[in-house]
TrEMBL record:
SUPFAM superfamilies: SirA-like. Belongs to the sulfur carrier protein TusA family. It comes from Candidatus Sulfobium mesophilum. It comes from the Bacteria. This is UPF0033 domain-containing protein. It holds the Pfam family TusA. Coiled coil: none annotated. Residues 13-37 form the UPF0033 domain. Transmembrane segments: none annotated. InterPro entries: TusA-like, TusA-like_sf.
Length: 82
């Protein structure tokens, strides 16, 4: 387990079944409402979002990011607001 995935998230966002750009858009909205230091866990099954748009956006924002690939092409994505 990584640094972020070992913590209890402050909020869980389920975007399973949603395709790009919805996982990114909904994650942005959720993080806007969160305080600095809080952790968002995103349940995602869209490869383009999990492997491309979400990590790039989080890096650009300066947020900590961790992705855990699960069996069945789903991801648990952890984003910590800075």
């Amino acid at each position: 387990m990584g640094e972020l995935s070992s913590k209890t998230p402050d909020q869980v966002l389920d975007v399973l079944g949603r395709v790009c750009p919805y996982p990114l858009v909904l994650s942005k909205k959720a993080l806007e409402k969160m305080s600095s230091g809080q952790l968002l866990k995103v349940l995602c099954d869209a490869p383009a979002s999990a492997e491309d748009s979400l990590p790039k956006w989080a890096e650009k924002q300066g947020y900590k990011f961790e992705s855990v690939k699960l069996p069945g092409d789903t991801w648990d994505i952890y984003i910590q607001k800075s």
